[in-house]
Specification:
- The structure is a single chain.
- The chain is α/β, with parallel strands linked by helices and 268 residues long.
- The protein has seven helices and seven strands, in the order βαβαβαβαβαβααβ.
- It has one domain: 3-Layer(aba) Sandwich (Rossmann fold).
- A seven-stranded parallel β-sheet has the order 3-2-1-4-5-6-7, with helices on both faces.
- It is globular, with a radius of gyration of 18 Å.
Length: 268
Amino acid sequence: MSEDYLKNPLSLFDVKGKAAIVTGATGAFGAIAAKVLAASGANVVVTAGTAASLKKIAEECEALKGGKVVQLALRPNSEDNCDKIVKAAVDAFGGIDILVVGSGINKNGKIVDQAAADFLDVMDANVTQSWLMSRAAGRQMLKQGKGGKIILMSSARGLLGHPGGYSAYCASKSAVDGITKALGCEWGATGITVNAIGPTVFRSPLTEWMYKDDDRAKGVRAGFLARVPKGRLGEPSDLAGPLLFLASSASDFYTGHILYADGGYTAG
């Protein structure tokens, strides 16, 4: 086995010049992924459904002075849209090397009270869109014949239940895990790797209240941290490292894997 990598081990994590797509780029995970890849020198197509928010993320990526950034106000919620997203990367950068599916939603509700439409919305956004976008990108990667990296957004809730009305969300993330494993097997010999990142609570606009110093936040945080061996909540930087690992050649032998960024939450 060649040991050329030992001349510069950090080159294993190099994504400079790679062509990437990040869906859901205005969401908590999507924004992290877009900025990390752009800052690392990848050329990135950022997509989301809200044009104004997308413009802000694109400007933040461009300000990092890394790779080129193209913005496309589309959600991966149809076959046609997914094909258009892939075409944008091909037209702008000549192909696609990395796909990050950061789009998704959650609608909490006790199952006896929750509308079936809410369940279907969560499954569509988290599962169907992951499948459609993986298929569209995978077709292009197979056509190119040089492999590629697909990274899906899972959660600790894909493995563990939750008493707070998470039946739709848990089911959707378990399904994402299934897609990850199935495609990891299906495309294993092609050079395309398919992995997922499964975080627990990390700082975002939706969870910022949990990081505050008031009594409510302290109470909720204390109960949660009793299950986290690291003894703290997650930060965006805790997702940046796993994202770069899975997007780069450092993870070439990893596929069908769910990488839990959870401070040990799922271990206990």
